[in-house]
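cron nightly-structures :: item 1 of 1
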Amino acid sequence: MSEADLATLLAFFKAMANESRLRIVGLLAERERSVQELAELLGLKEPTVSHHLAALKALGLVSARAEGVTHWHALRLEALTALNRGLLDPKGGVSVAGEVSAGSWDDKVLATFVTAQGEITAVPASRRKRLIVLKWLAGQFEEGRRYREAEVNEIIQRRHWDSATLRREMIGYGLLGREGGVYWRRPESEWRQAPEGLRS
């Protein structure tokens, strides 16, 4: 696999690690939809939906056509098929398996502690490795959106059963903010390299 193909696959997996983008792909797999319709179905603001669509368009997964003042978006199934061919070799093995060493240290950590299905197999004991997993988990939350604690727990439990520990860890590292029972994803510029109280 060429470096360009590998970069495309990595970009695909990073893009699809986001819950809202996965849901958008699922909705577009049914039929084409407008930004307004997607925003209503997902409970998101239209600019947020447009941002996600732009990421999917950059990968060639979504196409758009104008009809009057409305832009209709559709899933490009042929692009998904092409990505699938690139990921699997003729024998059914993962073609990038032998190239893991070329990936970044972060990718290696995620490959160790997060399955291909997006489940966290264990919380790393090392603070450095744990932060990599927590940053990945923070990517499951939308910037600019407010969550109730029950929603936060539900999202985390899709990835790992211990939502209480992981929620507390994300707050400690500054990945999530919390006030009055309401949570939000904080800007990356505010994320910490060590939990609150342990910084030098």
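cron nightly-structures :: done
The CA atoms of residues 1 and 96 lie 7 Å apart.
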